[in-house]
Amino acid sequence: MNKKILIVDDEPHIRSLIEQTLEYLEDEHGFEILSATNGEEGLATIRSEKPALVFLDVMMPLMNGYAVCRKVKEEPDLAGTIIVLLTAKGQEVDRQVGIEAGAHRYMTKPFDPDELLGLAKGILGLE
């Protein structure tokens, strides 16, 4: 498993909060935390770094999270990338669009940091 986690969000304070939440995985399990500020940068980072896990915002400039999900799932060498959509869009229809786009999970903002860390640990098999 590639020990990298990517956070893609256009809001600096959200990226920072997620990074702080995931520091445990960096310190205790040797994961590298990467970040990107928009969908295009996020997709480029997924292609180049091949992270094990991606926390991806939906509403971002240049390319939204749904489009990033679809592109990742279209590329055979990236198809195993686990994506968690993390968004303020909490309607059931939004969740369904995210899952259909290829996301493994859908979390709404504001999120509970403990829940986010627990989800990451579960996905990465660290529990």
CA radius of gyration is: 13 Å
The CATH fourth-level homologous superfamily: Response regulator
Decide which structural class fits the backbone.
alpha/beta
The CATH architecture classification is: 3-Layer(aba) Sandwich
> Overall mean pLDDT score?
92
What level of helicity do the residues show?
40-55%
For the secondary structure, the number of strands is 5
Q: What is the tally of helical segments?
A: 5
Q: Based on the structure, what is the oligomeric state of the protein chains? A: single chain
Structurally, the number of domains stands at 1
Q: What does this 3D model show about the protein?
A:
The structure is a single chain. By secondary structure, the chain is α/β, with parallel strands linked by helices. The model has no long low-confidence stretch (mean pLDDT 92). Strands 2-1-3-4-5 form a five-stranded parallel sheet, sandwiched between helices. The protein has a single domain, classed as Rossmann fold (3-Layer(aba) Sandwich). It contains five helices and five strands. Helix 2 runs parallel beside helix 3.
Describe this protein with a few key phrases.
127 residues; Rossmann fold; 5 helices; five-stranded parallel sheet; alpha/beta
